[in-house]
Amino acid sequence: xxxxxxxxxxxxxxxxxxxxxxxxxxxxxxxxxxxxxxxxxxxxxxxxxxxxxxxxxxxxxxxxxxxxxxxxxxxxxxxxxxxxxxxxxxxxxxxxxxxxxxxxxxxxxxxxxxxxxxxxxxxxxxxxxxxxxxxxxxxxxxxxx
Length: 145
Fold this sequence. Notes:
Layout: H1 12-24, H2 28-71, H3 73-98, H4 106-127, E1 128-130, E2 135-137
Antiparallel strand pairs: 1-2
Helix pairs in contact: 1-2, 2-3, 2-4
């Protein structure tokens, strides 16, 4: 039995992940300063770690979905569901590994993971196209739409 040939699919997931990171990075210093003002340097360190967790989660999601999309719809759906479960497991492991570290405060860590994850969902509703004509990001006037 031979493997199914890879399908030529535009890398929209990579484009979306890059755009999310590009739009989100300017807010990272604000998150760190607020966490630092509320919970001291440990809060800022915890928030920085939380932002790193969310960014790695986003990049892993893009990689898994891109891999699945090139192999067909069934593999894409398996990558979406299985990837979500795997990534949530990795987020849990990332938190459990550092929960007792001296530099970690769990409340700022949890609030930052939750807040930045929700912010990425709000970003997605604003900038991601739900159209087959324009997969990926919504077209803008500057991009020849």
